[in-house]
UniProtKB/TrEMBL annotation:
Gene source species: Azospira oryzae
A Pfam cross-reference name: DNA_processg_A
Residue stretches making up the DprA winged helix domain: 306-364
Name of this chain's protein: DNA protecting protein DprA
Start and end residues of each Smf/DprA SLOG domain: 78-286
Family as reported in the entry's similarity comment: Belongs to the DprA/Smf family.
SUPFAM superfamilies listed in its UniProt record: MCP/YpsA-like, RuvA domain 2-like
């Protein structure tokens, strides 16, 4: 038998045209959803005007039944504002969703968490940094929260799933959909080993304006927000701003002054975000937390969980890395800097790529990678 309280919550939130703000007005005036629906139409109209007719006259029984059926399947939950498992930090925000659709480990929603966000068009080094740092922090018990987007988000989730803290994805579609499709396997892993969270009704497609909206949940669930790479117009800066408005810590990883995906991070640092070079920089700010087996964070960026000695380079490889420096460079620039022939330089670059010391970028450019 369906839970009447959850049924009432679903009836309230699945009425088209009755959004979160209207829902909050009704809950503030009448109490729980069951009391909202038992109130006279005239009383409802005094609070929300003509939207009272939408509330009382809309037949959403099919959508409610579909949601209840979804919630009854193993691994699925629907959390309401009144549920003790609802993320408590999120309640401190100005606009907490009335309910959340959750797949996976609900207990992760109330563990100490860090949001990690960044560019969808991340550099190879940025992806390595995000995954390594997320893995370091998750190994110490921090849950990694991100948005399942391509680029930095995906890398952060993969790192978080490697550690005890796990990872939570806040998505901009219904919880029964996977977007982007390239993250299907990652989403399935999150649904079993981590968690997937959505405020949107089942079946909601990937609509552009939903993604900035989900950012407030990412910021609200975490004790801090780390931006790994971001252009000046990046949506990641919205998440960082929302975190700052909630009084949460904001962190950023610096990059090359020539890199467009570093400019957003540099602006955050100029505005007061803490510059991050290793996991300890974050733990020192958002602590104390004392998860089981926690150890001090000392691993620098890009080293992963177990430091290893990088392979020894021959003189030619070392010379090309020195010529490359830490900013992307094209083949002509490297030819000029090294004095090598095109054939010799290309052979060395291939060897360095295979050794994971250099990555090729769009436009025929190359970027140096930190050794792992």
């Amino acid at each position: 038998m369906a839970d009447p309280a959850l049924t009432a919550w679903l009836r309230l939130t699945l009425v088209p045209g009755v959004g979160p703000e209207t829902q909050r007005h009704l809950l503030a005036a009448f109490g729980l959803p069951e009391q909202v629906f038992s109130a006279p139409r005239s009383a409802l109209k005094q609070v929300v005007g003509k939207k009272a007719d939408l509330l009382l006259d809309t037949d959403n029984q099919e959508a409610v039944a579909r949601a209840l059926d979804w919630a009854g399947k193993p691994g699925n939950r629907i959390l309401t504002l009144a549920d003790p498992d609802y993320p408590q930090l999120l309640l401190e925000s100005a606009d907490p969703p009335s309910l959340l659709y959750v797949k996976g480990r609900v207990e992760l929603l109330n563990r100490p968490a860090l949001a990690i966000v960044g560019s969808r068009n991340a550099t190879p080094q940025g992806l390595k940094d995000a995954e390594a740092l997320a893995a370091d922090l998750a190994a110490q018990g921090l849950t990694i929260v991100s948005g399942l987007a391509l680029g930095i988000d995906g890398a952060a989730h993969r790192g978080g799933l490697k550690g005890e803290g796990g990872s939570v994805a806040v998505i901009g579609t219904g919880a029964d959909r996977i977007y982007p499709s390239r993250h299907k396997e990652l989403a399935l892993q999150l649904a079993t080993e981590g968690a997937i969270v959505s405020e949107f009704p089942l079946g909601t497609p990937a609509v552009a304006h939903n993604f900035p909206r989900r950012n407030r949940i990412i910021a609200g669930m975490a004790k801090g927000c780390l931006v790994v790479e971001a252009a000046l117009e990046s949506g990641s800066l919205i998440t960082a701003r929302l975190a700052a408005e909630l009084g949460r810590e904001v962190f950023a990883i610096p990059g090359s002054i020539h890199s467009p995906v570093a400019k957003g991070c540099h602006r955050l640092i100029q505005q007061g975000a803490k510059l991050v070079q290793e996991a300890r920089d974050i733990v020192e700010e958002i602590g104390p937390f004392d998860p089981p087996g926690c150890k001090p964070a000392r691993t620098p960026l890009s080293t992963g969980n177990t430091p290893t000695t990088p392979p020894i380079l021959d003189p030619g490889q070392a010379a090309v890395l020195d010529a490359l420096g830490h900013d992307p460079a094209n083949l002509d620039q490297l030819l000029q800097r090294t004095g090598l022939t095109t054939e010799a330089l290309c052979a060395i670059l291939v060897t360095l790529e295979l050794a994971d010391r250099v990555a090729s970028l769009p436009g025929g450019r190359y970027q140096r990678l930190s050794p792992t």
